[in-house]
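Q: Could you fold this chain for me?
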Amino acid sequence: MYKNAVIAAVVPAYKEEKMIARVIETMPDFVDHIVIVDDCSPDATSEVVRSADDPRVTLIRHEINQGVGGAIITAHKAAMELGSDVNVVMAGDAQMDPAYLPALLDKVTDGGYGFAKANRFYSPESFHGMPGYRVFGNIVLSFFTKLASGYWNLFDPQNGYTAVRTEVLSRIPLDRVAKRYSFENDLLIHLNILQIPATDVPIPAVYGDEVSSIRLGKVIPELLNRLTVGYWTRIWYRYVLWSFSPIALLLFAGLTLFVIGIGISVWVMFQIAGSVVATAATVMLAALPLMIGTQMLISALQLDIQATPSTPTFPAYSRSED
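A: Sure. Below is the predicted structure, expressed as structure tokens.
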């Protein structure tokens, strides 16, 4: 146990026969359960796990590949059945240094947060050793994930080194969370809908000789679609269905005025192209909805940022210790 909490490490693994043994061997003693999900690997990943001499290990093998998110979801469910209080995700390629696990768990066990994640972008030195395309991609993706998820205090959304209370997981419809590479992003959206306080923890990444299996041509459209759908889902539940917030009013009114302004602007440009002189009133008719709509959208964004769930609210597990 760790600070009176039962800890489970959930490990998604796909073609990790070379590194999975190291993940098991370096797992800290305070981790009570190690749930490894072999996501239909074509290599000897499962055989290596079975040969490990560690009674904490539970192996589950998918007969059909479900993606990294699907593997994590299966592991979370199994860990909760084993009685875990906190689940931490550890990659099967040993990229996540277990030495930093206490720093991550502290935020969840007695820091008052329901969810904590690693952040590799915490200092200029943290970029060293990280491929340039990953740096750029994570910066762009972080902004869009902030917008979609509503967690404006978080960065590096694709970092899967996370810790979450199982009482939080039990409230999330896990079967509806994205099962592939957009899992982390979609999980944040579900957490925000429940207004779960979340935080970042500065933790450097470890890059070895592993080869990424990510196909950007397939992953990017999936991410954009998930973030777009997730954004409107979050807005609907948090600001419309459960309480018609001023954020929703500003957002929908601002969008309406902005679209009207764009439409009138296009009409004015066609008129000018047809040698019709645009009057001051016509120009204002186009500019005014654009300006008011933009201001409303900015106000909605400001209020959404202020509504970020970042204040710790959960009691510490360690308080129940004698």
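A (continued): The chain has a mean pLDDT of 89.
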